[in-house]
Amino acid sequence: MEHMTKPNVDGLLEKIKKYEPEADLDLVRLAFDFANDAHQGQKRKSGEPYIVHPLATAELLAEMNVPISIIIAGLLHDVPEDTPVTIEDIRKNFGDDISSMVAGITKLGKIKYRGIDRYVENLRKMFVAMASDIRVILIKFADRINNLSTLSALPPAKQIRIAQESLEIYAPIANRLGINKMRAKLEDLSFKHSMPKEYEWVTGLVDRAIKVKKGYVEKVKTLLEAELKRNEINFEAIDGRVKHKYSLYRKLLKHERDIIQIHDIIALRIIVPKLSDCYAVLGIIHQTWKPLKGRIKDYISQPKPNGYQSLHTTVFCEGGEIVEFQIRTNVMHEEAERGIAAHWQYDEAGKVASPEVRKQMKWVKDLAKQHLDTKSGPEFLESLETLKIDVFQDRIFVFTPKGDVIDLPEGATPVDFAYAIHSQIGNTCVGARVNDHIVSLETRLFSGDCCEIIVDKDRTSPNPDWLSFIKTSTARSHIRSGAKSRLTRWIKNFGEERESKKERAEQRATHKKNR
């Protein structure tokens, strides 16, 4: 009986073969056997053989179509931490690259959520590991998703702690890296355990929406297919997409929990062969149904900061029902689902060669550097709040008049925008034009806005009152530095004035005495 239930690597190998037919599957099998032997006799809290967990981690990675070196590291990721086998043993058997990834994951293994005082320190470890090799965080995501799916075997307090950690640390990083497939799994599995009542409420809404709208969506899909064929427009697939639960919950909170205001619980997603087809399909949809004003979003010409590309439109459909459509190419769809994992390319030295990966690595390295310099105590707490805004908040993109794109956190103002361009522009800004309209400096910016900063070159320092509304750490740092410099200058000038007055008084006294 035990032999029949023994974990099997064949399912993993089949997944790899689908996207990488030439992969060295013997090496993957060897890694599985190596991990299985190392974990022999170990059990999970659920009573299953321990090897079930690294195997599930590797299968999640294979679903992301990553190179087999990452999958092998996923199979081996718990070996050094939980068994007598060392990193050096892994290096001898599987080489430097795989052992390096496993070493990076092992360092992250001890990260625990222990409240506000330890939170930033945990993030620091995370960013340093990511900056060294961003593949490490992909493996950690897969590891965490599998752990979340088996949380019921743990005590309730530990379930909540792991769910909170995943929701507050891992999911936002997955979002920033554009890995929507993993982000959705991390959020929904965490949501279930960290907010069970809210999860149950949202699940009920989704289930009812599917029950009510399933037939209607199929009808709209059939009508659209007919229209596209009649107009000889190619498409690869038209599918219904159900909004994932945590994302719906956050949107409901923005609309005071009014489900009537949410139009994309179920959306239709159209996948087409090429870019021009996206706009052709958009035209057909708008000829067929009337679009809602202000609900057409072109994320192709203006991608989201994490690289997401798609056309979104919301229309009054059959019978006056409101329906959202998402239109993208297959390449865009792959990038939306897999984010940075869709861009994995390596040169012969094993270094990242893809420009998309290098772009993502820049903000990760900047964060690692910034938080290596963070001291303990009160500065940690301030750093935590900064991170929640700078890194984990949703991002917007704002244009300069020359068309350059500035990536900012949601809720950012023209002052944040000015400092993101250059510190001198921030220090001397006195006003702003947004979409050709003069606005106050505390005006909230939105994605797609074009912002022009008005400066006064005679201005010597920023206004400390800006601290009450700015959002970015860059702006905050420069404003505080400017206020400190102004105070220093004032003290210096005050001292010099006193000395000057003293000298003049002494000169008058001497002159009077000589008389």
UniProtKB/TrEMBL annotation:
What pathway is it annotated to? Answer: Purine metabolism
Q: Which domain of life is it from?
A: Bacteria
Matching entries from SMART domains are given as: HDc, RelA_SpoT
**Start and end of every TGS domain?**
394-455
Q: What does this protein do?
A: In eubacteria ppGpp (guanosine 3'-diphosphate 5'-diphosphate) is a mediator of the stringent response that coordinates a variety of cellular activities in response to changes in nutritional abundance.
Q: Which GO terms describe its cellular component?
A: plasma membrane
Enumerate the InterPro entries for this protein.
Answer: Beta-grasp_dom_sf (IPR012675), HD/PDEase_dom (IPR003607), HD_domain (IPR006674), NT_sf (IPR043519), RelA/Spo_fam (IPR004811), RelA_SpoT (IPR007685), TGS (IPR004095), TGS-like (IPR012676)
Q: What is this protein called?
A: TGS domain-containing protein
The protein's matches in CDD domains, at most eight in alphabetical order, are given as:
NT_Rel-Spo_like, TGS_RSH
**Which protein family is named in the record?**
Belongs to the relA/spoT family.
Give every HD domain span.
Answer: 50-148
Its source organism is Candidatus Uhrbacteria bacterium RIFOXYC2_FULL_47_19
A GO BP annotation: guanosine tetraphosphate metabolic process
What the entry lists under PROSITE patterns is as follows: HD, TGS
